[in-house]
Design brief:
The protein is α+β, with helices and mostly antiparallel strands. The protein is about 60% helix and about 10% strand. The structure holds S-(P-nitrobenzyl)glutathione.
Amino acid sequence: MNPTITGFKQSPDRGQGLARDMRVRWALEEVGQPYDVRLVTFPEMKQPAHRSRHPFGQIPTYEEGELVLFESGGIVLHIAETHAGLLPEDANARARAITWMFAALSTVEQSIVELQFVMFTERDKSWYEERLAMVHDRIRAQLGQLSERLGDADWLDGAFSAGDLMMASVLLRVRGAGLLDEYPNLAAYVARAEARPAYQRAFADQLAVFEASLAG
Ligand code: GTB
């Protein structure tokens, strides 16, 4: 039986692939695992049926038989651990790939989420410009360090891994603010990730959901 994931019935990103079901779709495509998608509205996410799968009433979730998971990082790690293709065999290389997943989620994505919070909720405040510049600088500092570490390599640590999948997913969220293009090797890294056939398939599928939502 295929696993079932959840995604937005109508994504606020208008099909740009920035919602967190995209990284789960991408991981499933990378490992060649077919899956089903249950689409949920914002009100449905807050109902008991969905809250029993996701304590915080969000997407994505993942169901596979008796197993129910939430948190995109936990889901992608589970997919990577139960299928070949997203984590190296060598134990140390595997641990480093998982470390990059955590770095993407708990170091880099934190500042990006803060930026989006500031942009969506603080635009009318007197201190908006000052705070925006501060958060931009924090992101630039991290991107600069990441850019230095990546250098001219294709991927963060040898072959493409779940660490790259997660890092590229997170970096995509900051491209719209224009910050990614200040680091040409990171922009090229993300473009390489987006060019992967698995990414393209996942992107097309989530875009089709958004387009169908417009058609009613
Ligand atoms: N830490 C959790 C994870 O990684 O799975 C965070 C999950 C999360 O934030 N889910 C969001 C959600 O369900 C969707 S992805 N929000 C609804 C709610 O909380 O009520 C976040 C997101 C939303 C929209 C855009 N966008 O429009 O660009 C990008 C990312």
